[in-house]
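Re-run requested by the PI after the first attempt was lost when the workstation crashed. Everything re-entered from the original request form. Ligand of interest: S-adenosylmethionine.
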Amino acid sequence: MSPTPIAFYPRKPDQLQDRFGRKLTYLRISVTDRCNMRCDYCRPAPDAYRAESHARILRYEEIERIVRVAVDLGVTKVRITGGEPLVRRDLPRLVERLADIPGITDLSMTTNATLLGKYAHDLASAGLGRVNISIDSLNALRFRRLTGGELASVLAGIEAAGSAGLFPIKLNTVLMRDINAGDKHSEVAELIDFASNNAATIRFIELMPMKQGMDWHQHYISIDEVLQRGDVRARVDVDAALETGNTAARYLPLRHGSGVVGFIMPMSARFCEGCNRLRLTADGGLRSCLPADHQLNLRDVIRSGGSDDDIRTLFLRSAMIKPEIGLYDFDADSKKRSMIHIGG
Ligand code: SAM
């Protein structure tokens, strides 16, 4: 009698699946670790921040090659991010290359929108499907203090995304106590109204403790606490069942109209069991878990003459070492990388 086989999760050969049965079909690609804003929650303090040299950043043809292998392994959803992706020269050229790859059913970008006024139409013509736009405050002064950027250019970018047809537009707001949430200065209700008035869906994100220029303990606020506020409850049906799709966000319906509001709760309600993501950093690191400071180096494989099979092997290995649960470390000194370096 042959020995009883070990119960592996069945999978199609050469499809990305981890040890816990999660299919990895979503690749987030950071195209740069540079940004034209300096959000305190995203990058370390200026003296601790240094961008990679251009030579260490993947070229567009290298990114395309990696994505073709990933798609062959079952990836269908690709998001371009950064840093700020639009500060990378000729980004529509990369979009065009990726949009040409058969098998990608969702090609999107996360951006601060400041340069969308200039590029939205070119991006749409190149084949970009949709955009997620970060906006943390509707108060121009507060916005500048937090990000170093101009709110007016973000608003112009949101409008440009709409007129270029980059739908659906999702807005992302990181919640920070004493900045845009909590008893003082809550902008949650105002941001919900802003999104509905602009035919966009807003998602509120809990602050994650990365290597950053902000005290996480001081500014973290849970979604639960935000949902206790009267002005939020007046707008959001907090008693409805949370809608979970296959994304990190959970949604609640608005009380008026047909829209929803999204909540991304990496700290208070992890979504690891449904995680289908891999990340490619701008310098070619392949990362299967956001908080785990562990990545494999695809750039070295490519630049030392590696074959597509070698790239494939690294993807499969990355899937195999994806941890079941992403654990955040609350000791700022122990964290090696900030969001701007990993790609959010
Ligand atoms: N520059 C683009 C932007 O502003 O959207 C893309 C890159 S940014 C790193 C991607 C997302 O990561 C943004 O929505 C940002 O708010 C989020 N993010 C960065 N640091 C974060 C943190 N510590 N906690 C939660 N979200 C964070």
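Saved to the shared folder this time. The two ends are 51 Å apart (CA to CA).
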